[in-house]
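Hello,

I think I submitted the NAI job twice by accident. Can you confirm which output corresponds to this input? Input:
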Amino acid sequence: MLFASVLRVSDAVRLIFNRRRKRGSMHHLPINLDVRNKVVIVVGGGDVAGRKVLSLIDAGALVTVIAPHLNDALRQLLAANRIIHLARNYADGDLAEAFLVIAATDDNAVNRAVAKEARMRSILADIADTPELGSFTMPAVMSRGDLVITVSTSGKSPALAKKIREELEEVFGIEYGATLRLLGGIREKLLTEKGNSAYNKSLLSQLVAHGLPELIKEKRYDEIDHLLLELFGPGFTTNDLLREEKDHQ
Ligand SMILES: C[C@@]1(CC(=O)O)c2cc3[nH]c(cc4nc(cc5[nH]c(cc(n2)[C@H]1CCC(=O)O)[C@@](C)(CC(=O)O)[C@@H]5CCC(=O)O)C(CC(=O)O)=C4CCC(=O)O)c(CCC(=O)O)c3CC(=O)O
Ligand SMILES: NC(=O)C1=CN([C@@H]2O[C@H](COP(=O)(O)OP(=O)(O)OC[C@H]3O[C@@H](n4cnc5c(N)ncnc54)[C@H](O)[C@@H]3O)[C@@H](O)[C@H]2O)C=CC1
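Support: Only one job matched these inputs. Its output is below.
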């Protein structure tokens, strides 16, 4: 424990910093970042950049790619007006407007230069070939509607992260998307209409213990309606909460 009262924050940070930052231990803080309408720069236009750009666009970021050449996937995104492209090499100063940057060129010196500018400007940075120079890494991601499961191996084996993501896709089917639409609808209604937080917690915990994904997968809507009536009283039905699924039956 540092005596914060006699240290300036900058000194304390430097003391802690000097004790860490070895490549061997890369434990991160997992967070879910809101990048909607944020300016994101991706330096490099190859396969790695292409993969990261897709995730960024999915999350609603405003993506500018800086690279002399784009791969096919990125060219298609450009043709569809989904990205801005600066067809040239990265230059110092390119990050001036950025909230976040990804360096994914095949030139380590360029990626390092991006890392340096990002650090100077306190911009979040993922450096694809030298992750220890950046401030975050990207996990493998699987999603089913609003359910998002991410896998990190703390940089040890991206190949294993990908394999575990594929295994998770087998376990968590599309019924989880519908389950979350149902649970989200109920929770929204409870938070706006019904009792206090402890009451809601107890009911919502009881509901998720009932294996809803299985019931939805097998279209056992009558059983779900019965359960909703028992737990919440009238006003909560799959007709309202799962209309999309039931219309497509
Ligand atoms: C640290 C990190 C930084 C970052 O990129 O954010 C990073 C770094 C590096 N990756 C390398 C290699 C590969 N990366 C993949 C694939 C993925 N890499 C991803 C993330 C990350 N990769 C971050 C850590 C994630 C974690 O902690 O687990 C995924 C999960 C997400 C994504 O990219 O969006 C995506 C899978 C997406 C999916 O399918 O779900 C494959 C597999 C393949 O391509 O099939 C290979 C080859 C096999 C292998 O090496 O394992 C190399 C060596 C390059 C070289 O050899 O020159 C480096 C550099 C280094 O380690 O120094
Ligand atoms: N983090 C990850 O998930 C992975 C990282 N890598 C690392 O990422 C690097 C890139 O891999 P790929 O996309 O497969 O390479 P690639 O060769 O397909 O693409 C490289 C891109 O960088 C661009 N580029 C080169 N110099 C540039 C500059 N000065 N300014 C802007 N753009 C420039 C090129 O035009 C090209 O679009 C590799 O060197 C590798 O070390 C590789 C695999 C996975």
